[in-house]
Amino acid sequence: MLLLTLRGTPTLYYGDEIGMHQVAIAPEDVRDPFEKNVPGIGVGRDGCRTPMQWDATAFAGFSTTTPWLPLPGDFLQENVVNLAADERSILHLYKALIALRRKLPALQSGDYLPIAAEGDLLLYRRQSEAAAVVIALNLGAEPVSIKSDAAGLNGEILLSTFLDRQGEKIQGALDLRGDEGVIIGASSVAQPV
Question: Could you tell me the CA-to-CA distances from 93 to 49, 51, 175 in Å, in that order?
């Protein structure tokens, strides 16, 4: 959520949208030239270059033959086909974030206005001439409550990282679960002070 709500051009590496992770590569499977020349110090990039996990078929639908790098053990569950079928998956979250960014000028080119917060909480406002959104990110594992008129927490939740709070009305207070982020359609555009 952070990447797609900040200013600038968001860049996704293939597999981010399905939560692909770094794969441990056995020494005999190393392909990266630098890791081959200086083995054992973990400078190779092979672990983030494993085949895209398209489906649960042999070789994850990436190839009909053994791919150049090994597949992770979770490709049978964590693949595009399975995640596309789960309406609360990370794949659907990425699609919703991209659609919201395209729809809201404030997320494309609006001003970035930080909002004071403490602990694991990150709050900021993205604002264009026509509209504004408030982004609230709980970067910690514990739930947090935010009660502040100054934060501009009045409006409606447009998107939650858990994909289950759209349309929820917010009036000056917000409860966030651990590791949850929300985008709130602000009820008014803040005027410069």
Answer: 23, 22, 20
